[in-house]
Predict the structure.
Amino acid sequence: MVEDVFKKLNPQLYKEIIRLGFQNPTPIQVRSIPHILRGESVLLIAPTGHGKTESAFLPLIHRLLTKPNNKKGVQILWITPLRALNRDILRRLVLIAKQLQISVEVRHGDTSPSVRRRQTLKPPQLFITTPETIQALLAGKRIREHLKHIQCVIIDEIHELATSKRGVQLMVALERLRALTGKAFQRVGLSATIGNPDEIRAFMSGGEQVRIIKSPAPKDFRFHIEYVPFSYGDSDESPLDGPAKRIWELVTEHRSTLIFCNERQTAEALALRLAKLHGNEFGVHHGSLSREARIEAETHFKEGIIPYLVCTSSLELGLDIGTVDLVIQFGSPRQVIRLLQRVGRSGHQLDRESKGVMLTTRFDDICESLVVAQQALKGRLETPPIHNLALDILAHQLVGLAIEYKTLPYQRAIEIIKQATPYNELEQDTITEVIYFLQKEGLLARDEFILRPRRKSYAYYFENLSVIPDIPFHRVVNMATSRPIGRLDSGFAEEYGQRGNILVLRGRPWEVVKQDDEKVYVTAINHTKGRIPRWSGELIPVSKNVAKGVADLWNTIADNLDHPKSIDFKIDYDVQAREVLIKTITKQLEEDFIPDNQRIYIEIGHELVVIHSCYGTRINQTLGRVLAGLLTSQLGVEVVFHADQYRILFRFERGGGYEVGEAICEGLQSLEPTHMDDLLELILLRSPYFARRFVHIALRFGVISREANLRSTQLLRMIQYFTGTPIIEEALREFYIDKLSLKETQDLLKAIQNGEVVLQRLFRKRPSPFARQILARFGEFLEPEVPEAYILEQTKKRLINRKVKLVCLHCGQWASVRTIKHLGEHPQCRKCESRLVAGVFPTDDLLERAIRRHRAGEKLSPEERKTLRKGRENANVVLAYGKPALIAMAGRGIGPTVVKRVLAGSHDRSESEFFRLILENEKQFIRTREWWAEPKSQ
């Protein structure tokens, strides 16, 4: 039977398959190839390494070889979400296609104009492209003629597309393609193992029959969990030294290793520490690196030039990197799907075991990794929500249809869009509202029955082919090679892109040579002390099921503390992880409570309130926002909250915790669940987090220019102006789906008020061990188990060893770069002996220039006046407090105003209290730096 499947294929193809070593088809190939040969639409579901790609392209290449019209136009369209996949699929297809005289081409946003022209004049039989590029192809006058001959569309990694607006956009594009061809075509979806196969099948179907075909052979996974706390090691530079040392031990024991991080900043920091400690440059791969850098990393890794690669989700999907024999997950994987996709990169063949090590640094991560691994082995996968009825996609596709047909009957446009599953339930009133808005903005013309494009339609449509948020960035260019190496958020580039600063990118340090409006030019250096770039992005949400599993785990351990060795978690983990679990839960039991899902414990202290709510990221974010909004209106001051998947934290600088705790309890017991959506809308419309989302939606609707640089006050006015329009409606809808969980939070409130979930107040002088988990989370690589004295000693060492440039504001003729620890208690000018000196960054020459121009009587620019004013504030603080002011201003984000608060009454404070206050203010800056620019002064 195994041999017969391949023998059903064209003899030439069969011969080529044998030549390339495909001797035995995999189970998914045995099951799927006959159905695809018959032209059926199918959804193939199998873990990485089971041969899904070959399952699709082998029978389709067979059809290209055997059908008489196979030379006419584009026959097969292969759509993939990642350009990296384009390159990988192309390599594999070309091996067979070249031998069989089948033309294969790739088209995406980086394809050169000359290649595009060639593809338009002589289209390939098999076209590999992205969801964004198919939008452009459909509107192209010539290329769309070639698309009329499509016989099959392959949708790669459909599980990834189905849960984003890219997938919604693609499904409408497929209906536009069906309207163009005049017939239904075969659809083949390729998916990793998913928790909602029926939903994905419906999503891709367009109303046609789709057969689900699953691999009968489960992939073998082996997970191991280790606890490796943050530690400074011998370098005293980075708390990542401890984890980096263990990672190095693991990679040297294996042939080829992928190291996954959840955030790009962490990937860069970890790669830098590994390179520093072991003298080898570690490859880095993430979405903010340049295309060339990513290709180079992929190629070098696959060819064995570099045996280890630090990466993020950019390498989760189906790249064929079959030599990997170990995957290291740094921190909790947070989701079952993520763990399977990432660890599935190792043992990338059917008969090989996939091996993953989870290196955890915190108590929460140990627990979460255990639960995620348990659920992975049981096949309990998350079911991410699908974006149904997205209004910005609807607007864009209406304009696209008008461009495509020039004049299109209104009802026909609606028929095409509603055929796509995400718009099956689209109502007439919604369509009318969106079309009216587009008419008002000059993006669409409509008489009673016909839609037509306007002059502005073309720019709007082609500028918005991508629904990925367009975040302003600066390209980073290597001066030596003139090649791009990556990109930085523009805010980070403006703060830290000055000449002489050191940045870390691709796991190595670079010195900034110059910066212009679009680029930061750098040159490679050897020393490693630099700033890790900041990129927009948020942590992967943790589901309600995983959070409940973690709470159950805590209680299982608590119930078996007398016999901890009897607990079998079905997952291999080390002694250190077990000790941290037992130690932390033992300490927590001294507080007389362990959180679970039947009780919400509200821990109330003088300056903080922690709600222990084990309901996952989305519910806690929703509940936190509502409670913060209620408290703000009741107390008359803005209340800020922080939430993780197990807790919600409210902090107050001058007490008030007891009052707030009572207000929280009252709110949870009295808030009407049906009023939550209205209240949440009011809160979000005033939120800077929502303002960011509004900008993305407004861009997709074409009402904000991509060059616009809007201040927060302008954004709030714009939000008010567009209230009641599809823009606000869609921004709220998207925010609810991506970040919150309104219905589940409403159900939780009902359960509280029905007595099914019990509230319990706990008054505490000091936070419990579990409460300290969320307090530590908002520090920067600070482990709660590390003794405070050690942390403060390291803080002191870091600050006093900083270099500072002293600038005299009295004579304006002296400046000197000094190490803070070598300064006297009251620094003074070496020329005029004045103590009116300011401390600024060693590379900062703005203040000196402003002083010189001011003393020469020249007219200062607004920036120079601002620099001089800040310099005087800085110098006055140094005059008043001396060296301690310079130490405090060496802290991150600490300027003269904060220094006054830190040093007020300092004669009554111990040295440790002084450094504790600096550290607390640094943490506050780190939490809020998205909304504040770090001062230039030290």
Q: What stands out?
A: The CA atoms of residues 350 and 689 lie 44 Å apart.
